[in-house]
Amino acid sequence: MTTALTPNAVSRSADPIKSEVDYETLAAKFRPIFADIAQAVVERERDHVLPFQQIDALKKAGFGAVRVPTTHGGSGASIPQLIRLLVELSSADSNITQALRGHFAFVEDRLVADPGPERDTWLRRFAEGQLVGNAWTEIGDVALGEANTKVSPAPDADHFLANGAKFYSTGSIFADWIDLYSQRTDTGAFVIAAVEARQPGVTHSDDWNGFGQQTTGSGSSVYENAIVQPENIFDFSTRFKYQTAFYQLFHLATLAGIAKAATTEISRRVASRTRTFSHGNAPRYAQDSQIQQVVGEVSSAAFAAEAVALHAAQSSQWAYEAAFSGSPEEEKAANIAAEIDSGRGQVASIGLVVPATAKIFDALGASGVSRDLDLDRFWRNARTVASHNPVVFKSKVVGDYEINGTEPIYVWAIGTAPTEKDVQA
């Protein structure tokens, strides 16, 4: 039997960021940029043009600092407000939301870090517009739970050197810094190394070849004696505890935004269509009750996916605030709620959005599959996002919690599975 978890009566011994701004005021600052981003999204998708200009516009407008307190030059947005913004951004271009996922996770980690000059330095960098990319996953022969990427003390110097290679380096090609998961050679500790992205020892490649989310900059990155300053190495054990749930919120926002964009696009095309079928139900296509039903189902899926994302975001906000509560019991309960709710959200949203983005073709017929329209991007992108963090495992985690009260795994890894011989040893 599970215990009910509710984000009520959060005790606070510090002053975590709650909502410091009205959402409409916050969103109004970025909506013109979102509109510009949406203008050429089809061309970028079709011609594989990375959104450097679009991300730069967001960067200059302070989008990367929306979670930073107003006292440190940011917008002071809560996590639910951030997710609402990301749904709107994803409706314009779902690739950009995913490209910024690693940045906001690093920001979140710095927000819950101990106060002091080092934290203030990072908050200032975010307020100045500096962005952080993500480079955690390795491919090839890396063992499960290990990291082939290493950081080592430089001989006769006061800095460290990073060496290794990463795949799925999402957003790093656009970034000023890279959140690099690695292992220290001197202590064996797993760490995050904040690596300056534009130095001679770092190489970025746009070699991600998935059929969806093609312009996220999720290609490989290579580190050859890349310099890392000691103050930019953080023990992974200190990473913010609701990180997996927080990362998943970006996928929930992305799926919701894709569904909203698909609804807008299919509605517009149905409304303007002049041709109809002899065996249809109305003289005008837009009046056909069965076509209206299809659009209504897609719209309803988009509505539900956004509601799911925002509900899950409330649990992560509780986890954020509980980090300041001084109560280990409350923090644990909040972290469980954030993880379970993000998992439930993943299962629910995938089941809504992936079918809905395929259903739009039922409303247009053969003309809807024209490559010029690129309407398949909605399904391709949704299906690609849905393939992150395999949904079958999330269903299992939620089910195990509901049946047995099993605490979820907060941080998971991917790599070569141990052999039977390794397990026996």
From TrEMBL:
The keyword Oxidoreductase applies. GO terms for biological process: fatty acid beta-oxidation using acyl-CoA dehydrogenase. Keywords: Oxidoreductase. It holds the Pfam family Acyl-CoA_dh_2. GO terms for cellular component: cytoplasm. Residues 253-389 form the Acyl-CoA dehydrogenase C-terminal domain. This is Acyl-CoA dehydrogenase family protein. It comes from Rhodococcus erythropolis (Arthrobacter picolinophilus).
